[in-house]
């Protein structure tokens, strides 16, 4: 099972994805880095940016620009099977909003949201849920997975 993710310099999403224990590829942070091109179906893990936009009415985009660039590649977009988003509950209605946006635009299920670094319970719930539903989502289950 492949996890594709974006993590800012804070590394919160990176640390969460590492705990899942699945093969993972990171969307580059800088425009000068070579672009990522995936070769098999994946679940996308993405942080939410610009929390509180629905309250402030500012035109803030919840999906990081790097993720938008990655998904603008039709090949990459064709292989997304599900989305997971992180955020901050202080964002209120915008908590995990990037997942809503990506799921709607890519027509894939939004399967989980977690706060900041996630908890050990978040890791367990997501890992077990992805393994249990890999076939239904069109994801390759890792070898030896029950």
UniProtKB/TrEMBL annotation:
Gene3D superfamilies the UniProt entry points to: 3.40.50.360
Entries under Pfam families matching the protein: Flavodoxin_NdrI
UniProt xrefs under InterPro entries: Flavoprotein-like_sf, RNR_Ib_NrdI_bac, RNR_NrdI
HAMAP family on file: NrdI
Function: Probably involved in ribonucleotide reductase function.
Entry's family note: Belongs to the NrdI family.
NCBIfam families the record matches: nrdI
Name this protein carries in UniProt: Protein NrdI
